[in-house]
Design goal:
Elements lengths: L3 E6 L20 H18 L4 E4 L3 H12 L3 E4 L21 H9 L12 H10 L8 E4 L1 H13 L20 E5 L1
Parallel strand pairs: 1-4, 2-3, 2-4
Antiparallel strand pairs: 1-5
Helix pairs in contact: 1-2, 4-5
C-alpha cells in the first residue's frame, strides 16, 4: 500500500490579489494561521498521524509550521516545497506583465521559464523528488507545488502537461489533499 501524506494549502496571504505570486514573501493574518494550525492538529490527532509538519521557508507556510511547533510539533523547513519561481514576474501585477510574455509561456507551457524563473518541468521534478521525513507527516504547501504533486500522482511522470488548458485548478486556501509519498 502506498504511503500517503496530507498537504494543506497555506492560508490566504495579505495583498496578493491581481499579482503573480510565486516566491514573493507575503504576510498572512495570524488568526488564519492559528485556525489552520488547529485544524491540522485536530486532523492529525483523529487520524493518529505523527506531529511532524514540513513547510517551505516562505512566511505563508512557515507561520503555520511555527504555530504547530508551539503545540509540540516537529517543524521541518524544506525549500523543495517552495512555490514556483516566476523570476522577474514575481510580485508584479498581472496587468503589468506583457501579454506577449504570457503568450510565450502558454505556447511552451512545460518548458518555458516565466520571467526567467522556473519551468513547469522543473517544478514537476522538484515536487517528484520530495519525500516526507516520516510516514504520515503533514505538509503546508503552495498551490503550484501541490498541483505538480497531484499531477504526478494522477498522470505519472511520463505524461507531463503540454498545454496550459490541461493544468488543473488550484486548491482553495486551507484545503487539504491526500497525496502519495
Amino acid at each position: 500500500m502506498p504511503l500517503v501524506f496530507t498537504a494543506w494549502r497555506h492560508p490566504r496571504p495579505i495583498d496578493h490579489e491581481g499579482r503573480c505570486i510565486g516566491r514573493t514573501n507575503l504576510r498572512v493574518d495570524p488568526r488564519k494561521v492559528r485556525r489552520l494550525a488547529r485544524r491540522i492538529h485536530r486532523h492529525a490527532r483523529a487520524q493518529g498521524l505523527p506531529q511532524v509538519v514540513c513547510t517551505s521557508s516562505l512566511v505563508r507556510c512557515r507561520a503555520v509550521g511555527r504555530h504547530l511547533r508551539s503545540l509540540g510539533w516537529q517543524h521541518v523547513v524544506d525549500d523543495a516545497l517552495l512555490e514556483a519561481d516566476f523570476g522577474t514576474w514575481d510580485g508584479q501585477a498581472w496587468a503589468r506583465i506583457a501579454r506577449e510574455a504570457v503568450d510565450a509561456w502558454v505556447a511552451d507551457f512545460l518548458h518555458h521559464r516565466p520571467g526567467g524563473g522556473e519551468s513547469l518541468q522543473q517544478v514537476l521534478q522538484r515536487a517528484a523528488s520530495w519525500q516526507p521525513p516520516e510516514p504520515g507527516a503533514s505538509v503546508i504547501g503552495h498551490a503550484g507545488w501541490m498541483l505538480a504533486r497531484r499531477w504526478l500522482q494522477t498522470h505519472g511522470p511520463g505524461r507531463p502537461p503540454t498545454q496550459a488548458s490541461q493544468w488543473p485548478k488550484p486548491p482553495a486556501h486551507g484545503e487539504a489533499w491526500s497525496l502519495m509519498a
